[in-house]
Amino acid sequence: MDNKDLIQRLKKKDEDALYIFIEEYGKILKGVISKTLWKYPNLWEEAMNDALLSIWQNIEYFDPSRSTFKNWCALVAKYRAIDILRKEIKFESLRLDEDSKTVDSDLYSNLEIEEVLSLLNDEDKKLFENIFIHGLSYKEAASKQNISTANAYKKVSRGRNFLKKWRESFYEK
């Protein structure tokens, strides 16, 4: 079945077309969702259900002149996963606030953050801490370390790529 036929059947709310859609595009949606919610695999199914429902309910908004069907579906899945991630992060911060034992400075001592940052060299680790933990701008963090702002952007970009590759290899095991 080609995409045009599948899209038309989905617009007509043909449930058989939904099953075909899941067979053809399910792996793509799952991949996008798992990359976005990599830290929360328990939320993948909820995100998948939300993405499928959103595609089903909003198929009439697909515009082939703006994007391919595959990319549109992947974007819908990504936005659904991001929405769920935001809710989870908000819920976690509410739980932390309720505990009242945990304050912002305690978040840095989180073993997971320390473990990940320990993979970086000392200079990059300090840059990441200044920008992502202490909330300094790139310019402020660069000034604090006596490097240019452009160099700070490059170091963070390289560090992110390194951590992304490390994460992917870690989860392949």
Topology:
Elements: H1 3-11, H2 15-36, H3 44-58, H4 69-99, H5 104-108, H6 111-117, H7 122-133, H8 138-144, H9 149-172
In short:
This protein is mostly helical.
What best-fitting shape do the alpha-carbon axes yield?
elongated
Major sheet, described briefly? none
Q: Mean pLDDT across all residues, rounded?
A: 84
Helix coverage percent of residues?
over 70%
Structural class: mainly alpha
How many alpha or pi helices? 9
Order of helices and strands: HHHHHHHHH
Domain RNA polymerase sigma factor 70 region 4 type: 111-163
Organism: Peptoniphilus harei ACS-146-V-Sch2b
GO biological process, one term: DNA-templated transcription initiation
Protein name: RNA polymerase sigma factor, sigma-70 family
Question: Can you walk me through this structure?
Answer:
The protein is mostly helical and 173 residues long. The protein folds into two domains: 1-100, RNA polymerase sigma factor, region 2, helix turn helix motif (Rna Polymerase Sigma Factor, Chain: A, Orthogonal Bundle), CATH 1.10.1740.10; 104-172, Arc Repressor Mutant, subunit A (Orthogonal Bundle). The protein is built from nine helices and no strands. The protein has helices at 3-11, 15-36, 44-58, 69-99, 104-108, 111-117, 122-133, 138-144, 149-172. Helix 2 crosses helix 4 (69-99), helix 3 (44-58) packs across helix 4 and helix 8 crosses helix 9 (149-172). One of its GO terms (molecular function) is sigma factor activity. Belongs to the sigma-70 factor family. ECF subfamily.
